[in-house]
Amino acid sequence: MNPKYRKTVIAGNWKMNMLNSQVKPFAEELKGIVNKPKWCDVVVCVPYIMAPAAMKAFKDCRVEVGVQNLNENEKGAFTGEVSASMLADLGVKYVIIGHSERRQYYGETDISVNKKVHAAINAGLTPIVCVGESLEQRELGVTLELIDYQVKTALAGVPAEKMRKVIIAYEPIWAIGTGKTATAEQANEVCAEIRAVIRKLYGARIARAVTIQYGGSMNDGNAAELLAQPDIDGGLIGGASLVATKFAGIINAANKE
Ligand code: 13P
Prior knowledge:
CATH topology: TIM Barrel
Radius of gyration: 17 Å
Bound molecules: 1,3-dihydroxyacetonephosphate
Order of helices and strands: EHEHEHEHHEHHEHHEHEH
Low-confidence stretches: none
Strand content: 15-25%
CATH superfamily: Aldolase class I
Number of domains: 1
CATH architecture: Alpha-Beta Barrel
Shape: globular
Structural class: alpha/beta
């Protein structure tokens, strides 16, 4: 973390878990145990249908609501889809884009990720853009090249003045939901690479200000070590964000001076 230059953002990704009826009890429990987040922003990314309940439940505390996907088109005949302006109109602030589960199960590509990034920023949403390598790619030694390509493609055409709105999340696929966390050094190496790519594209000042998260089996036990790394500015948390005590532990680790 480097709160002098950029925001630390702790974001939960509930994926397809939780029920609408569980949102309020979760929020009440979290509010009871989390220290007032001073250094970090906190986001909970919920399934679309839970966004209104989540905004109501978190209204009186500093937790913002995000969702986990959007459609790249502005509007039209796209049955079953949700646009960026619908989300912004509802009061949603963040959207996860290009999560590896969407790339793997729903055919999302680096090109569609780029279109979704544009849709999000045009509507005033903050995209949390996910990049990350598979175990095979890591073992082949192509992680950094792959990450360069994913970041460059995701950000193609994004003007410098919009970069303040963009968060990148490094999520190694092999660490998601597996209990295998990247070591703090491995995670920081890739987050530093992402910052170097942004520096090449946008210059040092913008690169220094962009929030880069780590995601992949982050929990209340390993968060402090990961967040102590200079280029890891927060976390994108799956499993541990479903349990208020664990999520609070991560927030409190980010909140330490
Ligand atoms: P886990 O924290 O369950 O490994 O999930 C990480 C993730 O995919 C967050 O988007």
